[in-house]
Write a structure and sequence with these properties.
The protein is of the alpha/beta class. The protein has one domain (15-168): FAD/NAD(P)-binding domain, CATH 3.50.50.60. 25% of the residues lie in helices and 23% in strands. The chain has 3 helices and 10 strands, in the order βαβαββββββββα. The strands form 3 sheets. A 5-stranded parallel β-sheet has the order 3-2-1-7-8, with helices on one face. The longest helix has 23 residues, at 148-170. The relative contact order is 0.19. This is Pyridine nucleotide-disulphide oxidoreductase. Residues 16-134 form the FAD/NAD(P)-binding domain. Pfam families: Pyr_redox_2. One of its GO terms (molecular function) is oxidoreductase activity.
């Protein structure tokens, strides 16, 4: 199946998906969404940690280890075409479709995916049909088990996001 394409909106902008959380489920979600959607959909992952080890970076810099040591484990690598922002998440405003980062900048989105796992909840004011949560079960925020459960949850997420964007594309959602 080919990638899903969308018209650019009236301002000529791409559709935007922001994913909060760069753990294994957030990375899996970002990579599956990137594979599912054409480049007309911009995907940005935000996490306060960039998962690089400063000691390994030093060992590479002085030549003790090769550059391959800087690569994160396979399950933490983002595909080409996915942007990464290392920042604290300040708050989410679904009414304005914005994520406010700890440094004061904001990221606009058409779809927001919250994949912060067992971390404390992201401050989201209100609810919206374009905000999806993946990687947590129940109110306690227990992470989804690795493997088939995580993959199944992400496949449901991809279907839900695709359905939402297709409905907005056809104008069947009030926005």
């Amino acid at each position: 199946m080919g990638a899903v394409r969308f018209r650019r909106d009236r301002g000529g902008m791409n559709r935007r998906i922001v994913i909060l959380g760069n753990g294994s489920t957030g990375t899996l979600a970002a990579n599956r969404l990137r594979r599912h959607f054409d480049d007309d959909v911009r995907i940005v992952v935000v996490d306060r940690d960039d998962h690089r080890d400063p000691e390994v970076e030093l060992l590479v810099a002085i030549g003790v280890m090769g550059p391959h040591a800087l690569l994160p484990p396979e399950d933490r690598r983002l595909r080409a075409g996915i942007d990464f922002r290392c920042a604290e998440i300040g708050a989410v405003d679904p009414a304005r479709q914005e994520v406010c980062l700890g440094d004061g900048t904001t990221l606009g989105y058409d779809v927001l995916v919250v994949a912060t796992g067992a971390r404390p909840g992201v401050p989201v004011s209100g609810t919206a049909p374009n905000v999806f949560t993946v990687g947590a079960v129940g109110a306690v925020g227990a992470p989804v088990a690795e493997g088939p459960q995580a993959h199944a949850a992400v496949e449901r997420l991809v279907a839900a996001v695709s359905g939402y964007l297709l409905r907005t594309e056809s104008g069947s959602l009030a926005g």
